[in-house]
Amino acid sequence: MMKAKVVVVTGAGGGIGREIALALARHGASVVVNDVGTSATGEGRDRGPAESVVEDIVRAGGKAAANTDSVADAGTAARLIQCALDSFGRIDGVVNNAGILRDRFFHKMSPDEWDAVVKVHLYGTYHVSRAAAPHFKEQGGGAFVHMTSTSGLIGNYGQANYSAAKLGVVALSKSIALDMEKFGVRSNCIAPFAWSRMTSSIPVNTPEEAARVERFKQMTPDKIAPLAVYLLGDASSAVNAQVFAVRNNEIALMSQPRPLRSVHRSEGWTAESIATHAMPALSASFVPMERSGDVFSWDPV
C-alpha cells in the first residue's frame, strides 16, 4: 500500500511510533525514523532508539534513515523534513507522534510543565506539518496523520497541558485539511489506546486502577499501525479531516463539536431570562463531566 512513498514518523524510537514505522516499511515505504531519545518526560538525548528501529527495518529488507532533530523548534523540524528529501528524494507522508508527559493537577502545574508538553505535542505537530506542507502542495498530494488523545477529546485528571495540546492538534488537523484539500493533501487524527512508555506512568493506587492498567496492557502499540498505514496510502483518498480512536481490535469514528440544542427569544436575552428559561431548557442536553475511562468503559476485545 505504500510502495515508493516516503514517510516521516516522529517519536518513532519506541511504542506506537516504532510500530507505525515498521509497518510502513513492510508495506513498501521508505521511512525517516525520528526520535530525540528522551525520557517520557522529555529529558536527555540518545540517538540509539532511532538507529535501532532503522536497523530493524533494514534487516528486514526495508529502507529507513535515522533522525534525532527536535520537533519542538521550527528550524530543527525543517531539518527533519530535509532529511527525508536528502535520504529518499521526496516526502509523501508525516506521522506526528512525538510526545512527552508531565502530569500534574492544574492548581499545581508549573509554567515549565505546561510549556514543555505543549511545545512537543502542539507546536511540534505544527512545525513538522508546516515544513512538509510546501512540498505536498508542489507535488499535488500528501497525507498527515496526527496523534491526538481522548484526554483532549473527552478529558482526564491531571493532564491540562497534554489535554489542551491534544485537542489543539485536532483543530490544527481540521484547518490543514480545509486549507490544503485543493492541493490533494489530507489530514486526519488517531486517538490511540495502547500500553507504552508514556502510559506506563498511569498511577496505580487502588485495586480498580490496577485492574484498569492490566486491561490497558492488552492494547499493544502494533494495533494502531494498520490504521496509520491506511490513512497514509492512496486507498484513503476520500478520508479527510476525521478523528478515529483505536482500542485493541476496535476502530471508532469520533464525533466533532456540533450544536446539540438551541433556544431562541425574539426580544433577546437578559441575564435573568437566561437563568429562568435558557439554561433550564438547555440543561437536559448538557455534556456530562466525564473522563476518557467513563466514556470508553467497556473492556477491549
From TrEMBL:
Residues 5-201 form the Ketoreductase domain. It holds the Pfam family adh_short. Gene3D superfamilies: NAD(P)-binding Rossmann-like Domain. Belongs to the short-chain dehydrogenases/reductases (SDR) family. PANTHER family: BLL2957 PROTEIN, DEHYDROGENASES, SHORT CHAIN. This is SDR family oxidoreductase. The lineage of its organism: Bacteria, Pseudomonadati, Pseudomonadota, Betaproteobacteria, Burkholderiales.
